[in-house]
Write a structure and sequence with these properties.
Elements lengths: L42 H8 L2 E2 L12 H4 L3 E5 L2 H8 L5 E6 L7 H15 L3 E6 L1 H7 L4 H17 L8 E4 L4 H11 L4 H8 L7 H15 L9 E5 L4 H13 L3 E6 L7 H17 L7 H10 L3 H4 L3 H14 L7 E6 L4 H10 L4 E3 L3 E4 L4 H14 L9 E5 L25 H9 L9 H7 L7 H10 L4 H12 L5 H29 L16
Parallel strand pairs: 3-4, 3-6, 4-5, 6-11
Antiparallel strand pairs: 1-2, 2-11, 7-8, 8-10, 9-10
Bound molecules: tryptophan and iron/sulfur cluster.
Iron/sulfur cluster (SF4) binds next to helix 19 and helix 21.
Length: about 525
Amino acid sequence: MTRDSDPDDEPTDNRRPQTDGGAAAGADDVTLDPWGSATVDDYRKLFEQFGIESFEAVLPEVPNPHYLMRRGVIFGHRDYRPVAEAMRNDEPFAALSGFMPTGDPHIGHKLVFDEIIWHQQQGGDAYGLIADLEAHAARELSWEEIDEHARNYVLSLLALGFDPEEGELYRQSDNREVQDLGFELGAKANFSELQAIYDFDGETDVSHMQSVVTQMADILYPQLEEPKPTVIPVGPDQDPHMRLARDLAARMRYFKVTEAFASFEADPDERAIIAEAHSVLSERHPDETIRCGDAARYLENERDPDATDPNATTTDSVIMMLKEAGKEPLRPRTRFLDRNATDEAFDALIEAIDGEKRVYEAHVDAFDLARAEAEELARQVEIDHGGYGFLSPSSIYHRFMTGLTGGKMSSSIPASHISLLDDPSEGYDKVRAATTGGRETAEEQRELGGKADECPVYELYAYLLSGDDDEFATEVYEECVNGERLCGGCKEQAAELMEAFLEDHQEKRAEWEAKLDELDIDFDSDRRRRR
Ligand code: TRP
Ligand code: SF4
């Protein structure tokens, strides 16, 4: 993975204190490095470069979307549809995210806290975890520091509305199931792969690598009891972890379900060409058996290779395969490939397939089974035979907040962010001192309007201070860009709202503090490594 080369960025040295992003300008390439400085210059590039999808496209499928979704703060997702569907149908689903206890929780973390809590309120199983093993391995924090920060993260998550009776809070270091699952998942990944994804090298310590498989286990942990759609709300810097977790979930499966037309394997591009040949020929000769050789001849003689195949070599390879198969009938079917199944599970699957089927050495073809049914069956057989049957985890991505001083919001620059532990009056002062998108003079502002889109204060309104009140957020925006709002008054209002928010939040923290002992989470590590 390429690293960000913007000279203004924090060094991407793993040992540096964590910075939490902010949209720094100037970087050409989008980089996603979980332990680097999180900067995303252009969110749209993430769609093209990494296959993250725009959240806007699924928004209509989400019942009562959260304001962070409505306002585009949550801008992207991977595979969120199954989660939205479960929500609509009152079916089980889960949400989980993790926090590295490297400093105080701040208003950037609040986005993720809110996302977990919202999914919990929509009926999901909710999980908040403290990534203490990661903090110790990747950031080299001492256990004393980690304990203190862990406590603070948990208190804020609770104060914001996480229900610990319904949901689960845990520390990686105390969760034996997570560590066991991490061990198993680690058997499906090797060093070269981690090197390619995370830029690890010969100097990377083993515990850091272990923290990766631990995170993979965190992500799949909600599915240990039964597979269910699970969303992981994170910043886009965590996307490399999501891609690996999705891969590992698939690699653990007993069976892979695909579609096919004949006994040989074809990749999706090849299959599309075969499907087309099949559909043309079966329309022409509805009552005849179509054979692979017929399709080869059709492709060779009649099909314009440029029509749907920009890469003519794909068609060539398809023709070869079809010729090879010769007289074999060409028939659409659903295929179960044996990936990790035990012999008993493979036999049970064969037994469970209804209708016509054909059994091969390492796969079974079913002729009367639709793809979705086949997926369901494969998962059920896997679970009945002791497998996990994981669904690929989904993710949603939020924008990073701009720092109050411009540039990015960074834990290491106190004036750039507001800690959830800041004294309310300090929060007030930081907002009053913030950079704005305002003009040089009041006259100019009245005439041209402010630049709300570039204003960290407007962000505070949109991301936090307006809460669920879209009308208020819109009013601030409109008044700003129309020149009816001047920065002094605007910041005063924001500062007061921030002060009130912090007061309220800290009161709730204090209430939870008194009840913290009742929770099943230990803030005194008995780990002893000193650094
Ligand atoms: N790596 C995450 C961070 O840097 C923390 C984390 C650990 C996490 N496990 C997780 C996030 C599982 C989401 C899901 O903050
Ligand atoms: Fe920002 Fe408010 Fe000034 Fe507009 S009026 S630029 S939103 S501080």
